[in-house]
Design goal:
391 residues; alpha/beta; Aspartate Aminotransferase, domain 2; four-stranded antiparallel sheet; 16% strand
C-alpha cells in the first residue's frame, strides 16, 4: 500500500495490536496542524483557533459516523488511551444512583478493564464477578445474574482477536435487567468495528493509536448514562464559571457534554489526525481488506502446520498468538521473539497485559504474538515463513 511507502523492505512490523503504523494522510494531518494552525481549541477567537475548533468538532462527528451512532444519543470525549478512559469513567460512576449491585468482567480481559473493575469494587464495596468467555468470544446470557450489573468487557481480544459475537443480545439482556454495559473497544475499532455499529452500549472506550491514528484515547458515551457520572477530576476547559467555593460545569449543556471528561488542554493535533485516520479507514477498498485477510490467513495456516508452535487461535485473525514449549525446543517465546527481531521481524512476546487468563487460568508459558495491519505485505509473510521453516 502506497500510504506506507516509508517502510523499508526489511522492516517487518507485526505489532499492530499494540499500536498500528500511521499512513501518510494521518501523518500529514498531524504535521499540518503543527505547521499551519497550531493553536488552542475552545478558547480563542483568532483564525488558527477557529480552524482547530472546526476540525476537532468534525473529528467528534466522524467517530460517531464511523460506528453509525446518533449525535442525539451519544457524545465523544477524548482522553489518553483506553485504560485512562475506563478508569476515568469507573472512578466517577455512582453505583448507588444507578442502582448497581455488582460489577462484572470476563476472564480474557486486558488489564485495562480487569484492573479498573477491581479498583471499582474496592472503592465502592460492590462485589465483582469474573465470567468465563466462550471460545468464540461470546458471553452466555446465563453466565451470571446480570440484574443491576455494571458489565465491563472487550469487543475483541488482544490475544487472538476473538470477538464478542453476541454483543447485541448481551446489550439487550443487560439493559432489560437494569444493568449497564461498558465496552473496551481498543482491539475492535480498526478491524472489527462492524460489531460495534449501531451499538446500544452505555460507554465505549478506545485507543486511536490502534486504529492508524496518533496516540490518543476516546470515550463514546450515551447521553442518558451521563447523570450517573459525578465529576471528581476537574480542570480548565470544563467549567462555565468559577466562584471562590463553587463552579458550574459546561457539561450541564448537552452541546458540551463531552467536556465532562476533558480537563485541561487537549491533544488537538492528534484529535484532528484521528479524523483523518477515520477518513482513511472508510476509504479503503475491497482489495485492501482482501489483502489483509489473505495475509493473516496464510500466516495462520502456516503457523498451525508447525507442530512445534502451539497456536492459541481457533480461527484466522489479524492477531495471532502462539507459544513454544521449552522442553520441546530448548527455548521460550522471548528467545524466539529476539531471534525474529534480528531478522527485522517485530513481534510482541509475554502475556500482553492479560496475565490472569494466560498465566493463571491457562497456565501458558510466555507467548509470542503476530498482529498484522493494512501495511502488511505478502513479502512480510514470506519472510516470517522462511524464518520459522526449520522449527
Amino acid at each position: 500500500m502506497n500510504d506506507f511507502n516509508y517502510l523499508k523492505e526489511n522492516d517487518i512490523y507485526l505489532d499492530s495490536a499494540c499500536q498500528s503504523l500511521r499512513p501518510e494522510p494521518v501523518i500529514r494531518a498531524l504535521t499540518e496542524y503543527y505547521k499551519q494552525f497550531n493553536s488552542c481549541g475552545e478558547r480563542v477567537k483568532y483564525p488558527w483557533g477557529v480552524t482547530t475548533d472546526q476540525k476537532v468538532n468534525a473529528a467528534r462527528e466522524k467517530v460517531l459516523r464511523y460506528l453509525k451512532l446518533k449525535k442525539k444519543e451519544y457524545f465523544v470525549s477524548f482522553t489518553l488511551n483506553t485504560t485512562y478512559g475506563l478508569n476515568l469513567v469507573l472512578s466517577q460512576f455512582n453505583p448507588e444512583k444507578a442502582g448497581i449491585k455488582k460489577i462484572v468482567t470476563s476472564d480474557i480481559e486486558h488489564n485495562s478493564p480487569f484492573l479498573s473493575t477491581m479498583a471499582f469494587s474496592k472503592r465502592t464495596g460492590i462485589s465483582r464477578e469474573v465470567v468465563t468467555r466462550n471460545n468464540d468470544g461470546s458471553i452466555s446470557l446465563d453466565a451470571t445474574d446480570f440484574s443491576h450489573a455494571l458489565v465491563v468487557v472487550n469487543a475483541a481480544s488482544n490475544i487472538d482477536g476473538r470477538r464478542l459475537e453476541n454483543i447485541t443480545a448481551l446489550e439487550k439482556h443487560i439493559h432489560k435487567n437494569g444493568g449497564f454495559l461498558i465496552i473496551d473497544a481498543a482491539q475492535a475499532m480498526a478491524h472489527s468495528k462492524d460489531i460495534l455499529e449501531k451499538t446500544s452500549a452505555d460507554a465505549i472506550c478506545f485507543s486511536a493509536h490502534k486504529m492508524y491514528a496518533p496516540s490518543l484515547g476516546g470515550i463514546i458515551m450515551r447521553r442518558d448514562f451521563l447523570p450517573f457520572i459525578e465529576t471528581g477530576f476537574v480542570g480548565g476547559g470544563m467549567v462555565s464559571d468559577v466562584d471562590k467555593e463553587a463552579y458550574s460545569l459546561l457539561s450541564e449543556d448537552p452541546e458540551h457534554a463531552y467536556t465532562k471528561f476533558e480537563s485541561g488542554l487537549q491533544a488537538w493535533g492528534e484529535i484532528i489526525a484521528l479524523g483523518a485516520a477515520i477518513d482513511w479507514l472508510e476509504g479503503l477498498g475491497k482489495d485492501d481488506h482482501r489483502n489483509l485477510e489473505q495475509n493473516y490467513t496464510e500466516l495462520y495456516e502456516f503457523l498451525k502446520s508447525k507442530s512445534s508452535l502451539h497456536v492459541v487461535n481457533e480461527l484466522p485473525n489479524p492477531t495471532i498468538s502462539l507459544y513454544v514449549d521449552r522442553s520441546e525446543l530448548g527455548f521460550d517465546s522471548h528467545f524466539l521473539g529476539s531471534a525474529l527481531a534480528e531478522q527485522g521481524i517485530m513481534v510482541r512476546t509475554g502475556y500482553f497485559c492479560v496475565h490472569y487468563y494466560l498465566d493463571h487460568v491457562k497456565h501458558y508459558p510466555p507467548l509470542l504474538r503476530f498482529s498484522l495491519g493494512y501495511h502488511t505485505r505478502p513479502s512480510d509473510i514470506e519472510k516470517v515463513k522462511q524464518a520459522l521453516t526449520n522449527l
